[in-house]
Amino acid sequence: MGAKFITIEGVEGSGKTTQAALLADYLRRQGIGLVETREPGGTEVGEQVRQILLSPLSAGLAPMAELLLFLAARAQLVKEVIVPALQSGKWVICDRFFDATLAYQGHGRGIDGKIIRKLNEHATSGLKPDVTFLLDLDIEVGIRRAVSAKREFTGSRGGDRLEQEDKEFHRRVREGYLELARPEPDRVKIIPVSGSIEHVHKIIVSLIEPFLVKVQ
C-alpha cells in the first residue's frame, strides 16, 4: 500500500498539535517514514501568510481575503511538501487542512461552501486526506485551553486573531466540523476530547492500526 495522508482537525484548544506529535512518534516507532506539517504554514511562504492570518493586527481582514490567503498557503504546501513526501513513500501528518477552511471560512464566516470547495480543488489539485481525526471539544473549554497555553509558552495575555473571535463564531465552527464529518464516516473520525491526552492518543492509535496492517 502507498503512503498515507493524515490530517488532524478541531476547534481551538482541542489538542491537535499535541496529538499530531504523539501520532508521529508512534508511527516512527512502527518504522514509518513521515513528514509533519501544519496549516497555515509548513513552507517559507506559508509561514509568512500564517503571520498575517493569525495576527490581531489583521482584525479588519475581509472574509474572502482570509479565505484566499489560506488557500494560497495550502497550494504552496501541497506543491512543496505534501505531494513530494507522498510520492517518495513517506506518510504525511498535517495539523489542519481543507476541512478547517469549510468549518472556519464556510460555517464561521458564512462563505458559500460551493465556492470554497471549488477554489480548494484548484489549490490542492484534488488531493484529499486518507483519514482525518476530528477532535471535538466544548468551545468554551477549548478557548480557555488555547489562551492558557499561549500565555504559558509566549507570555501573551490574549489569543491569536481567530482565538479572539466571539463564542458564536466558534460555536458555528464546531457545528460546521460535525456537519462536515457526518457524510464521510470512513474518512473523518470524530474523537470526543473528554479524557486525558494519553486517552485520546490511544483512540487515535486504535483507528490508525488498520492502515498499518495494510502497509505490512
Automatic annotation (TrEMBL):
<dbReference type="GO" id="GO:0005524">
    <property type="term" value="F:ATP binding"/>
</dbReference>
<comment type="similarity">
    <text>Belongs to the thymidylate kinase family.</text>
</comment>
<dbReference type="InterPro" id="IPR039430">
    <property type="entry name" value="Thymidylate_kin-like_dom"/>
</dbReference>
<dbReference type="GO" id="GO:0005829">
    <property type="term" value="C:cytosol"/>
</dbReference>
<dbReference type="GO" id="GO:0006233">
    <property type="term" value="P:dTDP biosynthetic process"/>
</dbReference>
<keyword id="KW-0418">Kinase</keyword>
<dbReference type="GO" id="GO:0006235">
    <property type="term" value="P:dTTP biosynthetic process"/>
</dbReference>
<feature type="binding site">
    <location>
        <begin position="10"/>
        <end position="17"/>
    </location>
    <ligand>
        <name>ATP</name>
    </ligand>
</feature>
<dbReference type="InterPro" id="IPR018094">
    <property type="entry name" value="Thymidylate_kinase"/>
</dbReference>
<keyword id="KW-0547">Nucleotide-binding</keyword>
<dbReference type="GO" id="GO:0006227">
    <property type="term" value="P:dUDP biosynthetic process"/>
</dbReference>
<protein>
    <recommendedName>
        <fullName>Thymidylate kinase</fullName>
        <ecNumber>2.7.4.9</ecNumber>
    </recommendedName>
</protein>
<comment type="function">
    <text>Phosphorylation of dTMP to form dTDP in both de novo and salvage pathways of dTTP synthesis.</text>
</comment>
<dbReference type="InterPro" id="IPR027417">
    <property type="entry name" value="P-loop_NTPase"/>
</dbReference>
<keyword id="KW-0067">ATP-binding</keyword>
<dbReference type="Pfam" id="PF02223">
    <property type="entry name" value="Thymidylate_kin"/>
</dbReference>
<feature type="domain" description="Thymidylate kinase-like">
    <location>
        <begin position="8"/>
        <end position="204"/>
    </location>
</feature>
<keyword id="KW-0545">Nucleotide biosynthesis</keyword>
<dbReference type="GO" id="GO:0004798">
    <property type="term" value="F:dTMP kinase activity"/>
</dbReference>
<keyword id="KW-0808">Transferase</keyword>
